[in-house]
Specification:
The chain folds into two domains: about 180 residues, 3-Layer(aba) Sandwich (Rossmann fold), CATH 3.40.50.1240; about 160 residues, 3-Layer(aba) Sandwich (Rossmann fold), CATH 3.40.50.300. A hairpin with a 4-residue loop joins strand 5 and strand 6. Helix 12 runs antiparallel to helix 13. About 40% of the residues lie in helices and about 15% in strands. It is α/β, with parallel strands linked by helices. The protein has 14 helices and eleven strands. The radius of gyration is 25 Å and the shape is elongated. The protein has a six-stranded mixed sheet with strand order 3-2-4-1-5-6, sandwiched between helices.
């Protein structure tokens, strides 16, 4: 029997360094990790998925079991440590306790280790390929038991990152690999933001550029430079975009798709700002009124441009953008929180 083990995706509690068995939602980074890890498992044959009852584990395990049409087992033995009266408190308070000390009304580290032994005994005679989705402490205790390793040493010297994948071969009693994270991709240094006109691409791109000190290039400005009185020819724009996206770090933004292929396939991350027509129209009208153009706002032109985007089939349309998102699904995020780019903090170097 082979056991794949994955720690749950990054949760809101993780980034706040909060301990607890209470359910915590996923961060945007966690959702991204989950998406990538589901892709990783796609080529593996799985017979069963075992998960902790916690939402942060279960939501990933349920999606994995469904994609493989295999059994899903929710096992309380693989749950997070019960921190008792220290539930939802900062991590350092728990670390003050010894291995055999338990918080009031909670579990000690040794209690978790005993649960991991019971789990190992339960699956030791199973057959096929299983995936276990659990928590960092439990997985370390499971590894220590598998290797007959001193628990304290294992806790100090091993790590299970969010959505990492490890493989234990119970038949051969060996580790195939441990804390493998290559499926999560390299650090993000190249970002392309796309979507409809007036969807907020420029604002989002500027915030990313300023926060992470990454050069920003607008596809609109490549087509309509301030020093030109007519559009730059397509071949010149493609040549310039090829040059810009060959650099190590950049953020690009724009609705154009017909000459933006370098940005799409060279980006580490694609951000698709996808809006409904009513929301987009409202935002566009507000933007044009705010700009107070001398010639006034042409609402007919505004409406006609958006109608073309939502209902026509051309390189600058929602249909085209949906297809691009589908083609690059492993690196495309749709509608992240536009009020914050904190979800990129541990992605961007």
């Amino acid at each position: 029997m082979k056991l794949y083990i994955s720690r749950h995706p990054q949760s809101l509690a993780n980034v706040s360094n909060i301990n607890g068995t209470l359910d915590s939602g996923l961060t945007l980074r966690g959702k991204w990790q989950m998406k990538r890890t589901l892709e990783y498992y796609k080529s593996r044959h799985l017979n069963c998925v075992i998960t902790s009852p916690a939402y942060r584990c279960r939501v990933f395990a349920e999606a994995l079991a469904q994609s493989h049409n295999c059994d899903l087992i929710i096992d309380p033995n693989v749950r997070e440590r019960d921190y008792g009266d220290l539930e939802n408190q900062r991590g350092y308070l728990v670390h003050l306790l010894g291995m055999d000390e338990n918080p009031l009304n909670g579990e000690s580290v040794l209690d978790v280790a005993n649960r991991s032994k019971l789990f190992s005994e339960t699956i030791s005679h199973a057959h096929g390929n299983m995936v276990l989705v659990s928590h960092g402490l439990f997985l370390k205790a499971l590894l220590a038991n598998f290797l007959a390793m001193d628990l304290q040493t294992c806790l100090k010297t091993t790590k299970f990152s969010n959505c990492s994948v490890s493989l234990l071969d119970y038949d051969q009693h060996r580790i195939e690999y441990l804390n493998q994270r290559t499926h999560l991709g390299n650090p993000v240094n190249k970002v392309h933001i796309f979507g409809s006109w007036a969807s907020g691409k420029t604002t989002f791109a500027k915030e990313l550029s300023e926060r992470f000190d990454i050069p920003l290039y607008s596809l609109d400005e490549l087509k309509y430079p301030k020093s030109y009185d007519k559009p730059v020819p397509a071949e010149k724009r493609i040549e310039r975009l090829d040059e810009l996206t060959s650099m190590d770090r950049w953020v690009t933004e724009g609705s154009w798709t017909d000459y933006a292929q370098y940005a799409f396939y060279r980006a580490d991350l694609l951000i698709y700002l996808r809006m409904s027509l009513p929301s987009n129209l409202t935002l566009a009208i507000k933007r044009e009124i705010f700009r107070k153009k001398p010639e006034g706002v042409s609402f007919y032109k505004l409406f006609s441009e958006l109608i073309k985007y939502y209902f026509n089939d051309n390189p600058v349309s929602q249909r085209a953008h949906d297809e691009i998102c589908k083609s690059y699904s492993s690196k495309c995020i749709v509608n992240p929180d536009m009020n914050s780019v904190e979800f990129l903090e541990d992605l961007i170097t």
